[in-house]
Amino acid sequence: MEIRVKSLKFDADQKLLDYVEKKVSKLSRFSDHLDDVEVTLSLLNEPDNKEVKIQTRVYGQDLLIERSASTFEDAVSEVVDLMKEKIVRTKEKKFDA
Predict the structure, then answer these.
(1) Is the pTM of this model over 0.85?
(2) Per-domain boundaries in the chain
(3) Where does 2-96 sit in CATH, by number?
(4) Are the C-beta atoms of residues 89 and 70 closer than 8 Å to each other?
(5) What is the C-alpha separation between 48 and 91, in angstroms, rounded?
(6) Mean pLDDT throughout 47-57?
(7) What is the pLDDT of residue 26?
């Protein structure tokens, strides 16, 4: 599984990039068909100004989750948890049909 991380409007430090890689790599346990995951980190002009977007394609469907939080770590954890659920639901639909 290839993980691409983009940071918009700032330069992400190595510690944050390592955290993102570690969390996102756990998604591979939920599907063998997960090839490519794109993570976008960006800063907003809001109180919860750290936004994380995770995008992938699995079983022929594009999946996208976006969340904002006060820290990138919280936002990454939340989008990864939501993406796990979405991958499992997509997988169940694919094999129940």
Answers:
(1) yes
(2) 2-96
(3) 3.30.160.100
(4) no
(5) 32
(6) 92
(7) 94
